[in-house]
Design brief:
The chain has 73 residues and is mostly beta strands. The protein has one domain. It has one helix and six strands. Strands 1-2-3-6-5-4 form a six-stranded antiparallel barrel. A hairpin with a 4-residue loop joins strand 5 and strand 6. The longest helix is centred in the middle third of the chain and has 7 residues. It is globular. The N and C termini lie close together (12 Å).
Length: 73
C-alpha cells in the first residue's frame, strides 16, 4: 500500500503516515528515515506480521527502512 509521510521525528525514530499509522524505526535505520520529508510517498511491505515488522520504502528517494508498527491494521 502507498501512503504519504505526514511527520518524521527529529531523530528519525518515529514516522507518522497520512493514514495516521505510527511507526517506530530501530536504530540501524534511523539515519535513513531521518532524511525523509513530509509528503514523500512510502510503500509499506510486511516482513514479519507476528512481530509487526515492516519495511518502509520511500519511493521518492528509493531508500528503505525497517519499522515496527504501533497501530497499522
Amino acid at each position: 500500500m502507498l501512503f504519504t509521510i505526514k511527520r518524521v521525528s527529529v531523530f528519525g525514530d518515529r514516522i507518522i503516515l497520512n493514514n495516521s499509522s505510527q511507526w517506530v524505526v530501530p536504530e540501524p535505520h534511523r539515519c535513513t528515515s531521518q532524511q525523509w520529508l513530509e509528503t514523500q510517498v512510502v510503500a509499506v511491505k510486511e516482513l514479519d506480521a507476528a512481530h509487526r515488522l515492516y519495511q518502509l520504502v520511500n519511493l521518492d528517494t528509493s531508500q528503505v527502512a525497517e519499522a515496527v508498527s504501533v497501530n497499522y491494521p
